[in-house]
Design goal:
There is one protein chain. The protein has helices at residues 2-28, 34-42, 52-66, 92-105, 108-127, 133-145, 151-157. With 158 residues, it is an all-alpha fold.
Length: 158
């Protein structure tokens, strides 16, 4: 009797583990950006009309607060030319773009440096966007450049 009860308990734990893994996997395949859903709850000031720097700051704050800026698992199987710090790029759209740049060039340092320089330019241009129309244009232009997943398009934008 006890042996049968113990066997059923172990089977129930095993089944619960399998259901948990399937549920977690399905939750990660849902389309959309989970952080954008939380943005409307956590930061009511967020809007799509804000400048790109403000959008990224709000996105980063929510992702950090909710712990969504970390990888899904402790290990991953990726090509050797992918950077280890890819998950530190918090806006998922930026991460996808940088991944595309790395895949095209096979040079992780150069791709991360390009992203870093564009972020510095965005920070500089968007700081003066409220006071200058040219600063606003540069802010918008750099924001659009950071959306190009094709390195040739980024190069042509300069």
């Amino acid at each position: 009797m006890i042996k049968s009860l113990l066997k059923r308990f172990v089977q129930a734990l095993f089944l619960l583990g399998i259901i948990s893994i399937i549920g977690f996997g399905l939750s990660k395949f849902v389309p959309g950006d989970e952080i954008l859903d939380y943005l409307s709850i956590d930061d009511s000031r967020y809007s799509s009309t804000a400048n790109p720097l403000e959008q990224r700051k709000a996105y980063t704050a929510v992702a950090t607060k909710r712990g969504l800026n970390k990888p899904l698992f402790y290990f991953s199987i990726t090509p050797g030319y992918y950077p280890d710090s890819l998950f530190h790029i918090v806006p998922i759209s930026d991460r996808i773009v940088v991944t595309s740049w790395v895949r095209q060039s096979k040079q992780k340092e150069a791709s991360l440096r390009l992203y870093s320089h564009l972020m510095q330019g965005l920070t500089y241009a968007c700081a003066s966007a409220d006071t200058s129309e040219i600063g606003d244009q540069f802010c918008e232009g750099i924001g659009h450049m950071m959306e190009y997943s094709d390195l040739f398009s980024v190069h042509q934008s300069f």
